[in-house]
Amino acid sequence: MGEGHGYGKTILFGEHFVVYGLPAIASALGSKTTCIVEPIEGGSYELIDERPATPGYKKEKFDEQKASIENVFQAAGLSTSKNPVKIIFAGDLKAASGVGASAASCAALARALNDEFKLGFDDARINEIAYEGEKGYHGTPSGIDNTAAVYGGLIWFVKNLSGGKNTMELLKLKKPVEVVIGNTGLTSSTKEVVGDVKKLKESRPQEFDAITREYNELAVNAKDALLAYDTPKVGELMNQCHRLLQRITVSCVELDLLVDAARSAGALGAKLTGTGRGGLMIALTPGLEVQAKVAKAIEDEGYSAIRTKIG
Ligand code: MEV
């Protein structure tokens, strides 16, 4: 039997912009997806997916999950028909759009296969394999989700657009800070939303360029503010970032509603996180009292909220 795990993540700054080589900041979550693989007889793998999930998520992602499993096997030098295994996904990470659930499962499977077949891969190789798995979910992943899933922690990430090594820097905060993650309960397709942003970039190049320039400056300021533990500044930059994400059309009514509710309840800042057009939003809520108020405000709107920490 082989075992592995991958962390969920939340993107603080840079979803979508990261695809175009701009910097992003992501934090791994305490929750993770686990994977167990056990060799079986027969010509293919058997999948048991016990992850908690947003209703409809697993069904909607089923074909992409199949493609991703094939990719992970292939990248690990294995074959689903020649090395048939039972794959059991579980863990406490709730599979939902925006939480890096696909990357967490790819990292968990890569680690479990490495363990079962004694492949001797280090974290860098596991990360490469998880990245190939992510391609099953959408054709052009930036690599930020799998990197957070494999390494954990708070990371500054820049995709190398020439295909070389991506930049990854671990950011150490003075102390972890409370956040609330609100869930719209809507599942979105990363492939589709990333594709739409590409179309927007191609049809309105000057406007898109201006937005990315604004974002680039914002990301650098956000890194400085995080390292200085200047939470009001981080919050303000999150609000600005949400406005840029609205301009590239990846927000939606439900996300805007939860972002507004979180701000009114005392969050220092709030924005969508991950793919957008559904999925999740994140609010910066230093201190347990503000965190509780913001979570309640989201719940009062009829949505679920996770209380967690970043950094
Ligand atoms: C999805 O979690 C983040 C996106 O930026 C896509 C990617 O980075 O591959 C939307």
Could you describe the 3D structure shown?
The protein is built from nine helices and ten strands. The protein is an alpha+beta fold and 311 residues long. It has two domains: 170 residues, Ribosomal Protein S5, domain 2; 134 residues, GHMP kinase, C-terminal domain (Alpha-Beta Plaits), CATH 3.30.70. The strands form two sheets. Strands 1, 2, 3, 4, 5 and 6 form a six-stranded mixed sheet that branches. It has a four-stranded antiparallel sheet with strand order 8-9-7-10. Strand 8 and strand 9 form a beta hairpin. Helix 3 crosses helix 4, helix 5 packs across helix 6 and helix 8 packs across helix 9. The longest helix is centred in the C-terminal third of the chain and has 23 residues. The relative contact order is 0.17. The model has no long low-confidence stretch (mean pLDDT 96). The chain binds (R)-mevalonate (MEV). (R)-mevalonate binds next to helix 4 and helix 5.
